[in-house]
Write a structure and sequence with these properties.
The complex is a heterodimer of chains A (293) and B (787). Chain A is of the alpha+beta class and 293 residues long. Chain A has 13 helices and 14 strands. The chains are: A alpha+beta (293), B alpha+beta (787). The interface between A and B is medium-sized, with 22 and 26 residues.
């Protein structure tokens, strides 16, 4: 039994923002795989829900004329995984999508909900960070694009202002064209689990050197994060076992791991160093480079 | 021996009902105006309730009753009351006058010294673990009940929480149960031979320490029940249990009312694995219905509640000292064990006792000394769980023996072969005799399946960060509890007019498939096709024959004896009736393919249906053919088996992957190979979780569970489970019905030590503590200098 005291549905974004403007107590519900669990566990009570599920336009995934990949916030993980555009241009996101939960959850959970839930363990987050994703936030009055790195404020806290709805996720061509990537979800189980560490790496090569490397980590701190020190180091370095090892080491400096009953700081940092290297080695091959041995 | 139906993979009798959703579980039944019961759990691991105010909760509209320890029946109070047992609830103050009861699913014992420890109240005045039931609400719906729980005001005096056996055993530790001398629930094992002499005789002495973790059953169906008073005022409880007869007795004891005033009904059950061999929610549910004038009240535990507020598996710490000769012959073994039973006794010291008892059969030695103690702590209550102490002790000993083999440079299989039991061995403690044993053949089969020799050679030279290895481990078990406890089973068969039969058993099918194998046994004896045997799956203590229930892997063996006996009696009566109809001497005829035939020619004399019709409607001789028998099995049979495992270890991440795993069982005749295979696969997957990932974790200071949900508790999914190979060495067990021995629990026993030994083979590192999860393995490799 759920403690729901009110429920309304919108069929368009403007209808949703209008309802939200009228009643700031409304809580948005997309797939419901986070919200319902919180209600079931009693963390939120006496809820008035505004469902976005009838806004069909929000479930679309497309490539804009300028090459920007636009992912509707209501696209389910199953849809993200199966989308031919995403599979072709940013497979690190489709791989992240298939690693999430189980089939039933992926069929209902949305990528927008995943991001707005604000968890460091969000399966889509490390890839969206590595891809420099931008989030389109719409309210009745305004519309803005926010880089995902500015969106995550802390555990469960995101930069949504009252009245705002996340409608689309944008990935610019400059951030994916010519890149190869790799996503690794390191978890205790192969399904139905949250990551102990999620690593998403993209790289672009220039001959035998790195042109650009971007590393997104999940569960390496209170929010998803980027390994900027390692990213700054990489450009111009030879694509070699040594430089990859150095990048792995530098990545640890950006992690904000801590000891909990789930894993120790020591182990988490060890995993960051090891898995960043593993992901980068595959990303190099995916970017057209030769396999490092 | 050649059987017609026994030994065939016939379809489960409940397969269609379960797949189509027609099979009704407790939650599928509705009573009109059913109320909802919810429980207030203690937030403290060890605390005395100073005051408890329920007035606000009671005032909430929709709340029908609020119960605390003050409302519980007092000793010697209720039994004198006539008629209205609702009066057993009153509100006297003193806790000590409240009835205490034991909850373990053991048969009652006429010997008071052999009964379970009675240390529990329906609702506690002193909380002994985080989750202890303090108060309960009955309301018209779940949300109101949940709100009412928040309105109960409790003032606690918080005491030191003893969250480990070390803390509980420390000199001067506070007592978890007042009136006891210490926090030791019980101690005592056995001694065979002179252990010190044996050590003196031995060429080598080895010592080791091993530790297992607290895990949970995670049956699909959480504990669910509903209770009401019928028109005679009796309490009826429909519940998801393995042991309806014991639930009936314990509820009556907990309320202090005559046992006949309670009726328990068990519909289909979604798994128990021992957790439902205990009486967890039914006494409270009975008290709830009494508190609302007998109206129906339902309790359905959440997963979080089920994981910490019912039962868990005992964590053990072992110290083993072994004397062995140069050639690998075990001379003397001394095992000491500390078992953590948590806040209440439940099955208590029986688990430690069973571990030692079932271990004794595998490697008889000149001297074996077993010194276990069972200790109370302020953690959730440990009870029965598949294997009943054996996954713990075999993990410890099979790890220990592997280390010894490595040190002595003896092949790990050879060292075991040197020490295995022989047929004819009589256990000096139980006097049970090993009447069949195929452990050696099981090993041959397992070795071949995993390609042991080939892979051992292949993995000698390995490099890189992924290493492979092979391991194995063996076990012995039992087929029931004899001679420790009563092994009584009942069966009733009725021949219908059309020549089909109904079979009623007191034994409970909780998903493992016992209904089907009993049906096969009846079909075998009576020469019937399976669709002419109607098995009543529901047990009802008012109606079903008496049987102590589903535990100890006892039913196919023990209850099977009763079923066979009942079927033989019906057959005898059918032939007798046919003889009286035809005047053919009874020793000349037989029952084959639903026909009465001449033995010498097979020629048909009558159809079974003709006999059945006459038995109902012949104006002179009519007497329906039935049997209603009980069997007291004062015997036991020892099953054996082995797990072979191949692993790949990622040295850098600490992840262990089981590449191949095979369980080979000596369980006598396999009644239904397909179902037996499923039983083994389920058990092995449980063993893999025990080995690699499962562990209930608690805050060391507060005793609060950290991961009592299925996200954080790492029960393996099907994606984490390799294909599980299953094989049997079928050797007719002379004491069993149709030659069977037990199979229910054994598959869970040896995956953990086999995997542990395979990791040792791959990496050279001994992991002597479960589970071997990546964090632990990382630490182990770091310590060993591999990282």
């Amino acid at each position: 039994m759920y403690d729901i005291i009110g429920y309304c549905e919108a069929e368009t974004v403007s209808e949703a923002t209008a309802l939200l403007a009228q009643n700031p107590n409304l809580r948005l519900i997309a797939g419901g795989t986070d919200v319902l669990i919180k209600m079931h566990g009693g963390q939120i009570e006496a809820v008035e829900l505004l469902s976005l599920r009838k806004i069909k336009s929000l479930a679309e995934i497309r490539k804009a004329e300028d090459g920007t990949v636009v992912i509707g916030a209501m696209a389910t993980f199953t849809k993200v995984f199966n989308d031919p555009i995403l599979r072709e241009v940013i497979p690190i996101l489709t791989e992240a999508a298939i690693s999430m939960g189980g089939p039933q959850i992926r069929n209902i959970a949305t990528i927008g909900g995943n991001v707005c839930n604000g968890a460091t363990s969000a399966d889509s987050a490390s890839s969206l960070f590595a891809l420099n994703a931008q989030l389109k936030l719409v309210s009745q009055q305004s519309e803005r694009l926010v880089p995902i790195r500015e969106f995550y404020l802390g555990p469960g806290r995101v930069a949504l202002k009252p009245g705002e709805i996340l409608t689309e996720i944008h990935i610019s061509p400059a951030d994916y064209q010519g890149f190869g990537g790799q996503y690794i979800k390191f978890a205790m189980r192969e399904a139905m689990d949250i990551a102990t560490l999620a690593v998403s790496v993209v790289c672009k090569l220039h001959g035998k050197t790195f042109e650009e490397v971007r590393i997104g980590l999940g569960v390496a701190g209170p929010t998803p994060l980027r390994c900027l020190e390692a990213e700054v180091y990489a450009p111009g370095k030879d694509v070699s076992v040594e430089s990859v090892a150095e990048i792995g080491k530098l990545a640890v400096n950006s992690a904000k791991a801590r000891t909990s009953w789930r894993a120790s700081k020591d182990y988490r940092e060890h995993l960051v160093e090891e898995l960043v290297q593993r992901a980068l080695k595959t990303a190099i091959v995916n970017a057209g480079g030769e396999q490092l041995v | 021996m050649a059987y017609t139906v026994v030994g065939k993979s016939v379809r489960r009798v409940d397969a269609v009902a379960k797949v189509t959703g027609k099979a009704k579980y407790t939650d599928d039944f509705y009573e009109r105006d059913m109320l909802v019961g919810k429980i207030l759990h203690s937030p403290y691991a060890h605390a005395i309730i100073k005051s408890i105010d329920v007035s606000k909760a009671k005032a909430l509209p929709g709340v029908e009753a609020v119960l605390t320890y003050k409302d519980l029946p007092r000793i010697n109070y209720a039994t004198s009351l006539p008629g209205m047992i609702g009066d057993v609830l009153d509100d006297a103050e003193d806790e000590e006058e409240r009835i205490k009861f034991g909850t373990a699913g053991h048969p009652y014992s006429l010997d008071p010294s052999h009964r379970d420890v009675e240390d529990r109240h329906i609702l506690a005045k002193k909380a002994r673990f985080v989750g202890d039931a303090i108060a309960a609400v009955v309301a018209t719906d779940e949300l109101i009940a949940a709100k009412a729980l928040k309105l109960i005001e409790v003032e606690y005096e918080v005491l030191e929480a003893l969250t480990s056996t070390e803390a509980a055993l420390k000199e001067g530790a506070p007592l978890i149960h007042e009136g006891r001398a210490s926090n030791v629930l019980a101690s005592g094992g056995f001694a065979i031979g002179d252990i010190e002499e044996a050590f003196k005789e031995s060429d080598h002495i080895f010592e080791g320490e091993y530790e297992t973790s607290i895990v949970q059953h995670c049956h699909m169906e959480n504990q669910t029940s509903y209770a009401y008073q019928d028109m005679d005022g009796r309490i009826v409880i429909v519940t998801s249990t393995q042991i309806p007869q014991i639930v009936r007795r314990v509820v009556a004891q907990a309320l202090g009312i005559p046992w006949g005033r309670v009726r328990v009904i068990k519909p289909y059950v979604g798994g128990g694995f021992g957790n439902k061999q205990d009486v967890a929610i039914e006494p409270l549910n009975a008290a709830m219905t009494l508190a609302v004038g007998g109206r129906p009240v339902k309790i359905e535990l959440s997963r979080e509640e089920s994981m910490t507020d019912t039962r868990t598996r005992h964590a053990f710490k072992f110290k083993i000292k072994t004397g062995i000769n140069q050639d690998g012959k075990l001379i003397g073994v001394h095992i000491t064990a500390i078992s953590n039973t948590g806040a209440y006794a439940s099955h208590g010291h029986s688990i430690a006792g069973s571990a030692g008892g079932k271990f004794r059969y595998l490697y008889p030695t000149k001297a074996l000394k077993y010194d276990p103690i069972t200790v109370y702590t302020n953690l959730p209550v440990a009870g029965a769980m598949r294997g009943y102490g054996c996954p713990q002790i075999f993990y410890a000993f099979e790890s220990h023996l592997e280390d010894i083999a490595k040190r002595l440079n003896i092949d790990p299989i050879e060292i075991r072969r040197k020490n295995f039991v022989e047929v004819g061995y009589v256990d000096p403690v139980s006097k049970n005799k090993v009447t069949s044993c195929s452990i050696r053949e099981c090993i041959d089969k397992g070795k071949a399946l995993i390609k042991w020799d080939e892979k051992k050679a292949l993995y000698k030279e390995q490099s890189g960060h992924k290493l492979r290895g092979l391991g194995m481990a063996c076990f012995s078990y039992a087929s029931g509890t004899y001679p420790v406890a009563l092994e009584l089973a009942g069966a009733r068969i009725v021949l219908n007019q059309d020549g089909s039969v109904q079979l009623q058993i007191g034994a409970t099918d909780t998903g493992q498939g016992s209904d089907t194998v009993f049906g096969q046994m009846v079909a075998e004896v009576l020469g019937l096709p399976m669709d002419m045997v109607h098995v009543l799956s529901t047990q009802d203590t008012d109606i079903s024959p008496f049987d102590t229930g589903c535990y100890a892997s006892r039913q196919t063996y023990v209850s099977g004896m009763a079923v066979e006996k009942a079927a033989l009696e019906v057959k005898e009566k059918i032939l007798g009736f046919a003889a009286s109809m035809t005047d053919i001497p009874v020793n000349r005829i037989d029952l084959v393919d639903q026909k009465i035939v001449f033995k010498h020619s097979g020629e048909s004399v009558l159809t079974l249906e003709q006999v059945a019709m006459q038995s109902y409607y012949d104006l002179l001789r009519a007497k329906p053919i039935t049997s209603d028998i009980s069997n007291n099995a004062r015997i036991n049979a020892i099953p054996f088996g082995v797990t072979f495992a191949e692993v790949e270890v990622d040295i850098k991440t600490g992840k262990i992957e089981v590449l191949e795993i095979y369980n080979v069982h000596d369980s006598g005749t396999i009644v239904n190979p397909k179902m037996a295979e499923g039983q083994v696969q389920g058990g092995v997957s449980m063993g893999i979780g025990y080995a690699l990932s499962e562990q209930l974790l608690f805050d060391e200071v507060t005793g609060k569970a950290l991961n009592n949900n299925l996200l954080d508790y790492k029960l393996p999914t099907i994606m984490d489970t390799p294909d599980i190979g299953v094989a049997f060495v079928e050797n007719h067990e002379p004491t069993g019905p149709f030659g069977v021995k037990s199979l229910g629990e054994p598959p869970t026993i040896t995956p953990a030590p086999a995997i542990r030994n395979a990791v040792l083979d791959a990496t050279g590192v001994s992991f002597n503590r479960l589970p071997m999860n990546p964090q632990r393995v990382f630490e182990g490799f770091k310590e060993a200098g591999l990282i």
